[in-house]
Amino acid sequence: MNQAGDFGELAMNLHDQNGTLATVEGVLQFATEVLRYDHASVLLMRRRRPETVAATDELITKADQLQLDFGEGPSLLAISDHADVLVEDTTTETRWPEWSPIAAEYGIRGALAIRLFTEHSTSGVLNLVSAQPLDFTDADRESARLLALHASIAIASARLETSLREAIDSRKIVGQAVGRLMERYGLDAVQSFVVLRRYSQDRNQRLNAVAAHVIETGNLPD
Question: What pTM was computed for the model?
Fold first, then answer.
């Protein structure tokens, strides 16, 4: 494997993806097609809790969920310890007595969980899965870490881009609603925005949801 060339191409491909899910799927494809793992999955932190956003097989998604249900497993340990977690063989693994036997039944014999992180926080976990026990070399571990590094950067970038796009769209919606209220009720821009915000707070609704209602109906919510 021309590792430098493969990872260089990976970086360009991930940069060209549109959205977080497409970026994650690019990472999984590289893990299985280039690094030759049987399966892979990515868990991302959402509201301080990891959640599988994509996996190459439904059984891997179920195995990830079992970790959350049991409160044990390599992904959770990678998050809490901020370190790679290697599972050489689930049939002899003793650290997670509930998760390991079921993972073995699902066809997971070896696994490597690598934390995905930004400068300030953990963003998730990359799980690399083998149908056979893992006998890792230093080169294998370095390749896996390099993939996780590329994944961390690309996923953080995709999430930021999505957040910025949503913020811009939200501002457009609020701006249109302000214009409707100005036209309908003879308010100025500041007064119209205050009205929208008050309705949002009183009804415990997001501001852009109230704004969307105004745009669609021409009226404030009942």
Answer: 0.76
